[in-house]
Design a protein that fits this description.
Keywords: Glycosyltransferase, Transferase. The chain has helices spanning about 15-30, 50-60, 85-90, 95-110, 130-135, 150-165, 190-195, 200-205, 225-235, 260-270, 290-305, 330, 335-340, 355-360, 370-380, 395-405, 425-435, 440-455, 460-475, and strands at about 5-10, 35-40, 65-70, 115-125, 140-145, 215, 240, 280, 305-310, 315, 325, 345-350, 360-365, 385, 405-410. By secondary structure, it is of the alpha/beta class. It folds into two domains: about 5-245 and about 455-480, 3-Layer(aba) Sandwich (Rossmann fold), CATH 3.40.50; about 260-450, Rossmann fold, CATH 3.40.50. The strands form three sheets. Strands 3-2-1-4-5-6-7 form a seven-stranded parallel beta sheet, with helices on both faces. A six-stranded parallel beta sheet has the order 12-9-8-13-14-15, with helices on both faces. A two-stranded antiparallel sheet has the order 10-11. Helix 2 links the parallel strand 2 (about 35-40) and strand 3 (about 65-70).
Length: about 475
């Protein structure tokens, strides 16, 4: 039997790259005919992911990385004020280099005695411009969406609305009825790019989805039954493969800036806490707060009386990753550290999120509602309180709280950089609510965690979906069997 090569083009950010590599590992584990080539687009901004990709390359001989050369003409950093437009232009600037690399791969496979064929190009949300390369080289293209089925429904709906009436979204506009999402969606929870006056780039991305051979989504049928059922009955939508949860169970590798001593300090402190007694606060790789908001969070935690583990990070210049706080006493209320740190709570910088959510002492999660974080919390049965920041997190928070009933609603429409300060009393209520021992939300989350684990096992819905994707790529229809 002939072997096949799948070429993945992920976005360089951790939230996109890590699940892409985990899915690649899942594919090679399932079928020994598959090898994976990752075209590594370098991040415009400094990251800590190089050691993670090196560890994958060293441990997985059928996954290799090819670095895409940096283009000479890159979009200016000021454009990062509109991330969707910035990333789209940055990725588009890579197209000539990517085309050259893939052309060489196709040529090499055609001349190789090993009978390895380039079977498909798998692109990220921000890399849909690479679909043109696949078309030119007559290679099927697939989209790997690191977000969820509800977000996919939203993106598929955007071009339809735009064709009827040029979109100019205001937060005060009427709610939208979106096929695949149960409740009408208020524009205030739309992805930030659509409500900041710069939505054309977002619509351009969404308009390419239907050009692919199929769409792989990091979700599972049991979690998003409504949306996935709709996709399966709409002939105008490419086949959808719900393959999740695709999560990294060893997230320490992905963030080498977390030193072992800090990890050990965190886990040792958790080991000393009662079961399900700690609320974990973490807001993603780009989540941070100004000093006045930090003080309110601290006061809310103290008022709640709950034990807490707080990953506290401070804003950095635009386009760079938030940094750990160098002087906690400057941003926290007077005496807060003396009263709480190491006793009722622990404040840290970057934290091993998966390991913390898996710990028996963790009972709740105050989260930015990034999709990877949501999947990790469901996997470990830890309920979330919503505090979205950016990207599609507001939509995620809305659906988790209002549609799925698996999160407690604190804020749904908060946006990073907002002048709005969430007060201590509101934070106190949210923390106390998420830590309630016998809440309906906790019961639902724990039950969905069990379903998530079944979904990825042999006989599960996502296991079957991965098999269907493999068959569609290398089976009879693609001519590589």
């Amino acid at each position: 039997m002939k072997k096949v090569e799948l070429v993945f083009i992920p976005s360089p950010g951790a939230g996109h790259l890590v699940p892409t590599l985990q899915f690649a590992k899942r594919l090679i584990d399932r079928n020994d005919r598959i090898s994976i080539t990752i075209l590594a687009i370098q991040s415009y901004f400094p990251t800590t992911l190089s050691s993670y990709t090196k560890s994958i390359a060293a441990s997985e001989p059928r996954i290799r990385f090819i670095d895409v050369p940096q283009p000479q003409d890159r979009p200016p950093q000021e454009m990062y004020k509109s991330p969707a437009k910035f990333f789209s232009l940055y990725i588009e600037s890579q197209v000539p280099s990517v085309k050259k690399i893939i052309t060489n791969l196709v040529s090499s496979s055609a001349n190789s005695s090993d009978s390895i064929r380039v079977a498909a190009l798998v692109v990220d949300l921000f890399c849909v411009s690479m679909i043109d390369v696949a078309k030119e080289l007559n290679i099927p293209s697939y989209l790997f969406l690191t977000s969820n089925a509800g977000y996919l429904a939203f993106m598929l709906h955007l071009p339809i609305v735009n064709e009827k009436n040029q979109i100019a979204v205001e937060e005060s506009d009427p709610e939208w009825s979106i096929p695949g999402i149960v409740h009408p969606v208020p524009p205030r929870v739309f992805p930030v790019a659509l409500t900041d006056g710069r939505c054309s780039a977002y619509i351009k991305l969404a308009s390419r989805f239907r050009e692919t051979r199929g769409i792989i989504v990091n979700t599972f049928v049991e979690l998003e039954t409504h949306a996935i059922t709709l996709f399966s009955t709409d002939d105008g939508i490419p086949p959808v493969y719900p393959v999740g949860p695709v999560i990294d169970m060893d997230d320490g590798q992905a963030h080498s800036n977390l030193d072992q001593a800090q990890r050990d300090r965190i886990i040792k402190w958790l080991d000393d806490q009662p079961q399900k007694s700690v609320v974990f606060l973490c807001f993603g790789s780009m989540g941070s707060f100004r000093a006045e908001q930090v003080k309110e969070i601290a006061l809310g935690l103290e008022q709640s009386g709950q034990r807490f583990l707080w990953s506290l990070r401070m804003p950095s210049p635009i386009g760079t990753v938030p940094c750990d706080c160098s002087n906690l006493e400057e941003v926290l209320p007077d005496g807060f550290l003396e009263r709480t740190n190491g006793k009722k709570g622990l404040i840290c910088g970057w934290a091993p999120q998966v390991e913390i959510l898996a710990h028996s002492a963790t009972g709740g999660f105050l989260s930015h509602c990034g999709w990877n974080s949501i999947l990790e919390s469901l996997w470990h049965g830890v309920p979330i309180t919503t505090w979205p920041m950016y990207a599609e997190q507001q939509l995620n928070a809305f659906r988790m709280a209002r549609e799925l009933g698996m999160a407690l609603e604190m804020r749904l429409d908060y946006k990073r950089g907002s002048a709005d300060v969430v007060g201590a009393d509101e934070i106190e209520r949210a923390v106390v609510g998420v830590m309630e021992k016998d809440s309906e939300v906790r019961k639902k989350v724990e039950e969905m965690g069990k379903m998530a684990r079944k979904a990825v096992k042999d006989g599960g819905s996502s296991f079957a979906s991965v098999g269907r994707f493999i068959e569609d790529v290398i089976g009879e229809n693609s001519g590589f069997k």
